[in-house]
Specification:
Oligomer: single chain
Radius of gyration: 40 Å
Structural class: mainly alpha
Strand content: under 5%
Length: about 800
């Protein structure tokens, strides 16, 4: 099986009777090498209604063990399966909750003294606020009692009038906010509904006040509020009409856009133009109706805003008249009493959260004081240890249970993917082409011939899964290629193996130092051996990158910024040479990307693109010729430009640039149709390609920057531009110099290592992958991969 390209797959359908469904599921699990999918395209079949007790239990155990992994990451090998898994899951959750609580308490005990000090300070603040509220309450009660003694009959009326006054002002404020230009019609509807509710409350209060007031009539006010309410209901009706028209307008707009796309297609397909021409009157009617709706919507907006302004004026007048009546009816003392009563309620409401907080802080202080007792903390640690042991025992039993039922759970999962018809059931999916006959014979043998297997080559419309088997040494790099960038489709080359060499090479060149590289490699090895999943893959990438950094460190003659041996290649002394190597690496990667793209196009049957389009054989010839001309002229610009070989590269450039026009003619369009793409191809073939090449200069630039840190380290520690074996002893015997040396090395490993990694990713993704790797595929999931292990 090739590791550079996804394996060819073929589609299969397996039919059997309903009684053979479980046998079919078992046979598919046993074969394993298939990617099952739901047969949604087949008519007359429906999802099964199967009981899946093992699958349910497997998933519940998996979730429980995942929760337990935060406490225990290992299981007992000699444990036996659980006798009562459901009860064990419940008990495990309780123990996990208890363990988390104990860990939290133990962690709190380490900083209990500080927290107690903070809580006492907060308790003092809360007590102070409550004292202020208590003092204000005394004053308000005294004020209210004094006012009531003078005019006791008017106090309730005063409170009602104060509340009504506040609600009228709130309604006016909301109406004014709805008139803001930034307020949409839909938001205005919400605001106006709130105002209508407020008006209903105002009417209720006015009627209550009118029953108690003898002098002065409130009938005129009630009439005014009725008018405002009626006006707002009309506005809401207009808003409803507007929103209905808005929905219809959106539908017509979608139809119009669809018609425009159909018209564009008809221009490229003359044979359907007569059919399209018949529909032109209908399309015009859509445009006319759309214009009429837009005109009506604009009218409604004007009507809505005018009526809302009228409602504001109406409520302003209402407020003015209400204030006049209030001043006639209620004495100042009664108003003071009403205000005092209102303030009392506000103070009582404000005190509730403070009282609750005081209670909470008091409980916290009580609990925290226990954590100051060393014996109590010791008991907590012992309880935590016992709890962890119990978690380990139960989790181990559940893990063994999970292993025991996995096969049956997978079978039940497969049975859910086998759809049922009136008499038959069908399984559908993909199988590697080389295993298609094996699948057929395996199913027939397992089911005694009671199965019909249909094999189909994938159509162009379908998107087969990509089955890739990577060598173990390259699998960590799939973190970059498959998880971060995207999965290859069935027709393109997978760049993982190539990237497993190119990425560490670029990182190593930028971060060349034997000591720093060794640290990165050791850290990567630790992650690779001790972690799982993406972290394990990252560890593998760091291991390879660290090895290459060590190799380049040997070439640069540096270990932890100490000069060791002879410089084969010095970033400081020979920067020009290093920049040249960086550009050559860039040219190699770009050419390799074009070669892979060309192979992809040939394998997919698009020979036109493989030979003539940008990134094809002509582009390879043009770029390779230009690079060779630059090399043989020592990168001298004038000599390179005047080189006949470089000038000859104009021919493939022009052919590539005119390809979009040729393609346009080939597809039945005019020459001008391909003109914009021709211009973009010309720019991409010259300026963009030149810019892509120059991007690789950063490989040398970061290497020079790394060496510059070495020079600075030498100046800070030994007073020289370089640290050599001769002056190293001075550094080791001077504590300040030694601490400075260690600090700079740690900072450079962390910060510059991260930057070099990011730059290597950037060059890989944007200068390499974008030229050939579409990454729009999906992975081939074998039957055993349907459930997490």
């Amino acid at each position: 099986m090739t590791t550079l390209k996804p394996e060819d797959v073929i589609e299969f359908y397996a039919y059997t009777t309903k009684t053979g469904k479980n046998l079919l599921a078992s046979a598919l699990v046993e074969f394993d090498e298939v990617n099952l999918e739901l047969p949604l395209e087949l008519p007359g079949v429906n999802p099964p209604k199967s009981e899946t007790p093992n699958l349910r239990l497997y998933e519940e155990i998996s979730k429980a063990l995942e929760r337990a992994s935060s406490i225990q990451k290992r299981f007992l090998a000699d444990s036996s399966p659980s006798d009562n898994p459901d009860e064990d899951i419940k008990m495990l959750d309780e123990l996990i909750g208890r363990a988390i609580s104990l860990e939290k308490q133990i962690n709190l005990s380490r900083k209990a003294k500080k927290i107690i000090s903070e809580r006492k300070k907060r308790l003092s603040e809360v007590e102070s606020e409550l004292s202020d509220i208590e003092e204000k309450l005394r004053r308000y009660y005294a004020t209210a009692l004094e006012a009531v003694s003078k005019d006791p009959s008017k106090m309730k009326i005063a409170r009602l009038m104060i509340e009504t006054d506040s609600e009228i002002l709130r309604a006016i404020s909301l109406l004014n906010s709805s008139l803001d230009k930034s307020t949409s019609i839909d938001d205005m509807r919400i605001i106006l509904n709130n105002v209508v509710n407020i008006i209903y409350s105002i009417k209720k209060r006015l009627k209550e006040i009118s029953e108690k007031v003898i002098e002065g009539s409130l009938e005129s006010l009630i009439s005014e509020i009725d008018h405002a309410e009626s006006n707002l209901k009309e506005v809401l009706s207009s808003i409803g009409e507007y929103l209905t028209l808005s929905g219809k307008f959106s539908q017509l707009e979608s139809l119009e856009k669809m018609w425009e796309r159909i018209s564009d297609v008809s221009k490229r397909m003359p044979e359907i133009q007569p059919i399209i021409s018949e529909q032109i009157p209908a399309a015009r009617r859509i445009s006319q109706e759309k214009e009429e709706i837009a005109r009506r919507m604009n009218e409604l907006v004007d009507i809505i805003r005018t009526r809302v302004k009228g409602s504001v004026d109406c409520l302003d007048l209402l407020y003015k008249n209400f204030r006049e009546i209030r001043e006639r009816v209620i004495s100042v003392d009664a108003l003071i009493a009403g205000e005092a009563e209102k303030s009392i309620y506000e103070m009582l409401e404000k005190s509730q959260p403070l009282l609750a907080e005081r209670e909470k802080v008091g409980v916290e202080l009580s609990e925290l004081s226990k954590l100051m007792d060393k014996e109590y903390v010791k008991q907590l640690k012992k309880e935590l240890e016992d709890t962890k042991k119990s978690i380990l025992e139960i989790a181990s039993r559940l893990y063994k249970t999970k292993e025991a039922i996995r096969h049956k759970a997978v079978e039940e999962k497969v049975s859910l993917m086998i759809y049922e018809g009136s008499d038959i059931v069908v399984a559908h999916g993909w199988v590697p082409r080389r295993l298609a006959n094996n699948l057929k014979s395996h199913l027939e043998r397992s089911m005694g011939g009671l199965v019909a297997v249909e094999l189909e080559a994938p159509s162009k419309k379908k998107k087969p899964p990509s089955r890739i088997k990577l060598p173990k040494i390259a699998s960590p790099v799939s973190l970059l290629t498959h998880k971060l960038y995207g999965f290859p489709n069935i027709k393109e080359i997978d760049p993982t193996v190539i990237t497993s060499f190119l990425f560490p090479l670029m990182f190593g060149m930028m971060f060349g130092d034997m000591g720093h590289g060794a640290i990165v490699a050791i850290f990567g090895l630790f992650l690779f051996l001790k972690t799982k999943g993406s972290l394990r893959d990252l560890g593998g990438i760091l291991l390879y990158s660290g090895i290459f950094a060590t190799i380049f460190g040997y070439l640069y003659g540096a270990a932890f910024f100490v000069e060791i041996g002879t410089h084969v290649l010095s970033p400081i002394k020979e920067p020009t040479k290093l920049f040249g190597i960086a550009l050559l690496i860039g040219a190699f990667e770009i050419l390799l990307a074009f070669v892979i793209r060309t192979i992809d196009k040939i394998l997919s049957g698009d020979k036109f693109a493989a030979f003539l389009e940008y990134g094809g054989i002509l582009t390879i010839a043009m770029y390779a010729g230009a690079v060779y001309a630059a090399i043989r002229n020592g990168a001298d610009v004038m000599k390179t430009v005047s080189d006949p070989l470089f000038q000859a590269m104009v021919i493939p450039l022009l052919i590539t640039a005119t390809t979009p026009m040729l393609k346009s003619m080939k597809e039945g369009h005019g020459l001008l149709h391909g003109m914009p793409e021709m211009v973009s191809t010309l720019i991409e073939s010259t300026l963009a390609l030149f810019s892509n090449s120059l991007s690789f200069i950063r490989l040398a630039a970061f290497a020079v920057a790394h060496e510059t840190f070495g020079v600075l380290t030498g100046m800070f520690t030994v007073g020289s531009t370089s640290i050599t074996p001769e002056n190293l002893m001075h550094l080791l015997t001077n504590p300040i110099s030694l601490v400075t040396f260690i600090f700079i090395n740690i900072a450079v490993i962390g910060l510059e290592g991260l930057l070099s990694f990011i730059q290597a990713m950037r060059l890989t993704f944007y200068e390499f992958f974008t030229k050939f790797y579409s990454a729009n595929g999906r992975p081939f999931l074998r039957v055993r991969e349907l459930l997490p292990s």
